[in-house]
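I hope you will forgive my troubling you with a question about protein structure. Could you please explain, in whatever detail you think fit, how the structure tokens follow from the sequence? Thank you for your consideration; the sequence and its tokens are set out here.
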Amino acid sequence: MGSRPDIRGLVVQHNLGLQKDKAPQPDAQKALGPTTEVPALSLDELKEKTNNFGRGSNGVTYFVTLNDGTSLSVKKRDFSDVLNPLFLTQVSRVSTLKHENFVGLRGYYCEGNAHVLAYEYATMGSLHDRLHGTIRKGVREAKPEPVLDWMQRVRIAIDAAKGLEYLHEKVNPCIIHGKIRSNNVLLFKDLRAKIGDLNLSHRARNLNVLYRSMGSSPYHAPEYALVGRPTCKTDVYSFGVVLLELLTGRKPGADRNVPNIATWATPKQKKEDEVEKIVDPSLKGEYSLKGAVKLAAVANLCLQNEPGFRPCMTLVVKGLEPLLGAEYRIPPMSLEPDINKHQRTS
């Protein structure tokens, strides 16, 4: 990085992890652009903690513990041109987003063509890690984790739905995530879930679309191939795929015999006995069948081919919250041993 100061007048000191914004002079306020609610980062400390960002790796996420004990998830992006003011505008906006189910921005460094963003560190990994047993990429290796039980899955679904509801319906103007998937449902203490990875690119043309998803994906709604851009309704479709992952334990599109999880599961979501056949076998029958049918019904609404038939996220939250009630609880298992029978709600 060059030795010149950041164009927004932020002081980056080598011996401190996080520094507060230095108030600009009145005559410079207009040139510096929007203010942010997160501090600047020490680039030297980040280089030390990440082994110089893996000798140039671009877009990789690192786990970092700063000298003051703060744990962060850090991503560095390099661009060929100089810092674009639009990127700073996006950082400023995202720094104001505060919700218990949204991964907050904790700091950043912007100078020249280097952009470094730091977020809350997801101590329990991602939903994808937990469901599919994958090893997290980065500086710290993930260990095998216990299978998520039914109620943990229900709570994760509700938490994630509330996070996306916040972006769509509580923020004004709304924010389209554009890359909803199990990798970006991040898990924290007590398996509380938050929506993450609002990956800021200074190339984005619309501040309301902070990440542009590219290429083909089983998370993409049918209309995505036609319009080529995410919308709130494509986010809802993607969330429906995440719900199917929670219900079935399958990876989207992992089976070569089916195009994706939505195509495979949708015909099986309408009857109770069919839903029972697609529930994740790793649960070993310890779930509420009535709850599984309810969750499948909500997923089915999210996965409607016509965008106008998909619910808003507030309705998705309202559809999922009853799963925490006694009506959908798992009944106590029988004390009599019976390896071939599992009690569920009818």
